[in-house]
Amino acid sequence: MDFDPLQKGIVDTALEARSIDLRSYEESDASTIRVELVPRVLMNLDQGVMVLNAVLTHFEVREAQAAVAPTQPQTGKSDWAFLREIDTMVQEAHSPEAVKDIAFFSMGEMRRRRARIEKILGKDDIWLILSELDGGLRYVYKALTALEAAMCQLSGVTPRLGFFTELHRALATRQVYGRFRQEVDSGGEPDPDGVYDRMRSVAVGIAKLIGRDIYPDLRVTDRGEIRKLQRRALDWLKGGRGADPEAGLRLWQDCSAFTGLLREVSRRQELFEHDTKALAGALERAENLAGTGVVTREFVESVQPLFGKDDELDRLLDEGAGTETARWLMVLQRLQSGFM
């Protein structure tokens, strides 16, 4: 079988998964989601399984063999374990057997995701439903971009999709959260006369965050909280400058507390492992620059992936080259001590 038709099926199905944007349903109701959104996601999962089966057939693996993969949800299994394991499998995909492993493994996971969606369709909690639908779409896109990357490595064909590791996505998420935290906390706690302007700025920041390309990659639980804060902010702002300033201050405090909780993204396994190495390297480079008194542009760029981890470090990164090395050393030493 020619690889071109296989690649087209992989690309078309992956792009369809990516095109199903859940944002427009985050303010909807369960009935609408079940009627309009669920069938599209289930169809995409089914198409994903068909594509994976075509790949296995291409490599002379019988469908009957692939069908032995469990089809029931596994309790206690991390939703993110599959995504991280796919990263490892792609890195080690140097043979047809490795490609078959990705397809076989992904087929079982897609079937599990479908079963999980069907299990909660009677629920009225829209965020529970959206979480399961989001998980199904993530699985399809992740599996198929990984599969195309692995197959193109073997065949020498140029990939049409981009494959991104969970580390790549986690770093991008942390940077977006860091910028959002800066927008909310800029200037510290507002006084009663300034709370309206601050909350208007926060509402704009939330709208910008929801509109970002990376928003669908954020965890559904975070998106649910973001939407709740957005509704509260818009409702309060309807009162104009005559709105209760004490209520506005409490609302700002809730927004600030939430952005603080978003720092927990750094506890993800892939970021913890990344940061341990990155901090050690950054500290060593800063020590080598101690004699010059200031850091270079190259140094700042090398530390940029840590943006969003720490407010003081973020300020140094924004100030950029020419800042005092001693300030960097203090921050980096403090952060590294947290890993020891």
List the helices and strands and how they pair.
Blueprint: H1 3-19, H2 30-58, H3 63-66, H4 81-91, H5 96-119, H6 126-155, H7 166-185, H8 195-211, H9 220-237, H10 245-261, H11 269-288, H12 297-303, H13 311-319, H14 325-337
Helix pairs in contact: 1-2, 1-6, 2-5, 2-6, 4-5, 4-6, 5-6, 7-8, 7-10, 8-9, 8-10, 9-10, 11-14
Could you explain how this protein is built, in words?
With 340 residues, the protein is an all-alpha fold. It folds into 3 domains: 3-155, no CATH class; 166-264, Four Helix Bundle (Hemerythrin (Met), subunit A); 269-337, no CATH class. Helices cover 69% and strands 0% of the residues. It is built from 14 helices and no strands. The protein has helices at 3-19, 30-58, 63-66, 81-91, 96-119, 126-155, 166-185, 195-211, 220-237, 245-261, 269-288, 297-303, 311-319, 325-337.
What's the number of extended β-strand segments? 0
Count the domains: 3
Radius of gyration: 23 Å
Secondary structural class = mainly alpha
Helix percent reads 55-70%
Number of discrete helical segments: 14
Distance between the termini: 54 Å
Taken as a percent bin, the fraction of beta residues is: under 5%
Query: In terms of per-residue confidence, which ranges show pLDDT below 50 for 5 or more consecutive residues?
Result: 62-77
Mean of all residue-level pLDDT scores: 90
| String of helices and strands | HHHHHHHHHHHHHH
How many strands, what sense, and barrel or not for the largest sheet?
none
Shape: flat
